[in-house]
Amino acid sequence: MSDRKDRRRQIAGQYAHYFETLTLDRAGDIAALLSEDVHFIDPFNDVRGRDQVVRLVEKMFEDVEDPRFDILDLAWTDELCLMRWDFYCNVKVIGAWHVRGMTELQFNEEGLICAHYDYWDSGRHFYGRLPVIGPLLRFLTRKARLDS
């Protein structure tokens, strides 16, 4: 295996460990694994820059109680890593919350993470659980289903 692939695998492993052991006082530790110009996208955010990603992690601790990630798998192509995970927390409006998702990690020439793209169903797993919005979304989903 090339040094470049080894470096990416090492960084991805450290990244997975970071999320599995994440605490508010360690939020800034992610910076060492990210390129300065990292691009982060999830269903709620689209930010660029290492400082913005650190701020995003810190904000998660402001918005939810007891956030926890379980990293289930790391899968590789030649150029990127896919990280499958479960996220658990408590949200004031909806209570206990669990979502399964996938993250696409891309790496720069130095092996640092330059892109983190999260994929998960926010309609079903978040908006669908909100008061007022949730019943409307469930109604629309039922109308669009094949068996409706």
Overview in brief:
The chain has 4 helices and 6 strands, in the order αββαββββαα.
Ordered list of secondary-structure elements with their pairings:
Blueprint: H1 3-20, E1 34-41, E2 46-48, H2 50-63, E3 65-76, E4 80-91, E5 95-107, E6 113-119, H3 122-125, H4 133-144
Question: What are the key terms here?
Answer:
globular, 148 residues, 6-stranded mixed beta sheet, alpha+beta, Nuclear Transport Factor 2, Chain: A, 4 helices
Please, could you describe this protein's structure?
- This protein has 148 residues and is α+β, with helices and mostly antiparallel strands.
- The chain has a single domain (3-120), classed as Nuclear Transport Factor 2, Chain: A.
- The protein is 32% helix and 37% strand.
- It is built from 4 helices and 6 strands; from the N terminus they run H-E-E-H-E-E-E-E-H-H.
- The protein has helices at residues 3-20, 50-63, 122-125, 133-144; strands spanning 34-41, 46-48, 65-76, 80-91, 95-107, 113-119.
- Strands 2-1-6-5-4-3 form a 6-stranded mixed sheet, covered by helices on one side.
- A hairpin with a 5-residue loop joins strand 5 (95-107) and strand 6.
- The mean pLDDT is 89.
